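Worked example 4.2. Below are the chains of a multi-component assembly; read each line carefully before continuing.
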Amino acid sequence: MAPLSPLLVADLVGIAVFAASGATAAVAKRLDLFGVIFVGFLAALGGGIMRDVFINVQPFAFVDWRYALVAVLTAAATFRLHPTVSRLRWTVLVLDAAGLGLFVVTGTLKALDAGVPPLGACIIGMLTGIGGGLVRDLLTGEIPTVLRREIYAVAGLLGCVSVAALDAVHLQRPVSIALAATLTFVLRMVAIRRNWSAPTAS
Amino acid sequence: MAPLSPLLVADLVGIAVFAASGATAAVAKRLDLFGVIFVGFLAALGGGIMRDVFINVQPFAFVDWRYALVAVLTAAATFRLHPTVSRLRWTVLVLDAAGLGLFVVTGTLKALDAGVPPLGACIIGMLTGIGGGLVRDLLTGEIPTVLRREIYAVAGLLGCVSVAALDAVHLQRPVSIALAATLTFVLRMVAIRRNWSAPTAS
Amino acid sequence: MAPLSPLLVADLVGIAVFAASGATAAVAKRLDLFGVIFVGFLAALGGGIMRDVFINVQPFAFVDWRYALVAVLTAAATFRLHPTVSRLRWTVLVLDAAGLGLFVVTGTLKALDAGVPPLGACIIGMLTGIGGGLVRDLLTGEIPTVLRREIYAVAGLLGCVSVAALDAVHLQRPVSIALAATLTFVLRMVAIRRNWSAPTAS
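Applying the procedure described above to all three chains together yields the following structure tokens:
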């Protein structure tokens, strides 16, 4: 089990935010307490589980109990406090953008370290960031939001590509992570403020 | 291939019941013969496939032909005999509760044996029990039942926790399995009789 | 990375067709450019990803960049040219049948080579062929077509069984592949022309 480094703390904050987003969607669909916790758990950890399955290691979500605990407690708290969570919409969006940046960047690096070539590692990194939201939407009977509108996955993908490029020129890992995650975060926030969307077919 | 022990027979009975439940849902959605068999197969074996993917072994569902054969034959028989299966609703509920108890308990033990720590092993054990039903509902276009009502997954989770606890104090495996599976079974039956449900958010 | 053999070229053609089919479904659901590419990618490569997860290797879709590139470019082109792609319906059906034949046969052989027994290898082979379409339909909020009508998966399954049988009698691999893929292709085309469907329950 890794010590409680700044990176791990940031990771756990990202997981808490994703769990709250999953739990909020589940409450809106009138799922019961178990359903809310389950959807919150998978919204928070589903992307990382996919990543670990693809790189052939036991998913960290099952191996390090702190991840599961943070996801479960946050989802349970959201079940109780969901009106408050809904009022915090802006805070949740900001933290979600931060979580996205962190997840795609660390996902890409873990895939590279497992020997996956750069293009594949970027796709796995992006799936780490959007996989939880995909599972959340599938479980609650929605076509995934990330496929329909807004610049979300594309912001994540840029983070993957930049961290892979910075790593290829042997920049130090903490610097690469900080730069690429910040880039993703800023792009995502600008996209929200300016209401940017990807085009749909004419 | 394991010899035909009492545990394997019980496992196969559980698989047959889950396959019948999946096939019944598929018939209700007017799927064709292939669809009914496919949904039955995944309802029966999807939970175990998830478990084996997470602990990084080739899924038993593909390795031991008896599992696939029982699932396919039961689903095909349900396709023909579905009015009879529907009349057996109470029998199916009882056998399903028994299958749940068995799957969560053996799933937890397999995860522990693969080196997954107790909390993660319990989550994997629960997924072994509810995973097939999740896949069945997703394939037939429903929000998973297990997330919406009734004490089902929670009964399974208690079975996981108890078998992990009994195993930690080095009780003999057959005794641990029998105790924890029975606990799950009884809790699930009482929940059905008393119409217990998990709470939904207010 | 494998050299550009005839088999690989055929594989890439199959992937392009599956990507076009996924992208067309995504355009019809009004997904944005990212969603169209993402669904196209998974429609083309989802079956192979499942296969590789089940036989415990890193998915080729992430390891060999040519697969991802062909899928992404085809999906992007379909986003632009979807009226043309729709007019090519018959061409797409023919190429799709060819892709199905190829994917199920190579999927079965890869599973056999990974030590999976014949029955399980056939199921994995079939999943390789139909998995992408399953994911495409789940992501676009549909009950999977393959479960509802037409002889599609069954044609694939016959290809799996024949290639496993031919391989068991030690026929040369290229001959086995050609025979079994052709059988699947012909059966699928006849099923389309004669409008064959699997039965539904009465």
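Take a moment to check your reading of the output against the notes. Chain A has one domain: 6-194. Helices of chain A lie at 6-28, 33-54, 60-63, 65-87, 89-113, 118-139, 153-168, 173-194.
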